Amino acid sequence: QVQLVESGGGLVQAGASLRLSCLATDDSSRSYAMAWFRQSPGKERDFVASISYSGRATRYRDSLKGRFTISRGNDKNTAYLQMNDLRPEDTAVYYCAADEIFSDYEDPDLLPLTWHAYGQGTQVTVSA
């Protein structure tokens, strides 16, 4: 079972940037696609972005395109979420997710729609 640990959250003012990190650890040699979700108080968990194992395929929530960027580290065990021009409505707990893959791809339509592992989350708070 993969373990996911997020970091990089915090309190920032509107217009600032943050970069979240997610480290995936596993005793096996499995490969994972990874994703970010977020959940605001009283709301459901929403998809933010996902990325393939190689990083060649990405998918974003339409409303976040252009401000948020997902990427993978060179070791493929880390996923990042660069968030620019943050707004108060971005305030949420951000969760990393992973799903095992058996082959890599470039087509973002092949990215998982369901995710079987989640981290504990990191809080992002954006003040006006």
The total of helices stands at 0
In one word, what is the shape?
globular
Largest sheet: 7 strands, mixed
Low-pLDDT segments, ≥5 res: none
Output the helix-strand order: EEEEEEEEEEE
Structural class: mainly beta
Share in helix: under 10%
**Beta-strand percentage?**
over 45%
The average pLDDT score comes to 95
Give structural notes.
This protein is mainly beta. It is built from no helices and 11 strands. It has strands at residues 3-7, 10-13, 18-25, 31-39, 46-51, 58-60, 68-72, 78-83, 92-101, 117-118, 122-127. Strands 2, 4, 5, 6, 9, 10 and 11 form a 7-stranded mixed β-sheet that branches. Strands 1-3-8-7 form a 4-stranded antiparallel β-sheet, with no helix packed on it. A hairpin with a 6-residue loop joins strand 4 and strand 5 (46-51). The chain is globular, with a radius of gyration of 14 Å. The chain starts with a strand and ends with a strand. The model has no long low-confidence stretch (mean pLDDT 95).
Give the secondary structure arrangement, pairings included:
Layout: E1 3-7, E2 10-13, E3 18-25, E4 31-39, E5 46-51, E6 58-60, E7 68-72, E8 78-83, E9 92-101, E10 117-118, E11 122-127
Descriptive terms for the model:
128 residues, mainly beta, seven-stranded mixed beta sheet, four-stranded antiparallel beta sheet, 0% helix, 50% strand, globular
Summarize the structure.
The chain has 128 residues and is mainly beta. The chain is 0% helix and 50% strand. Strand 4 and strand 5 (46-51) form a beta hairpin.
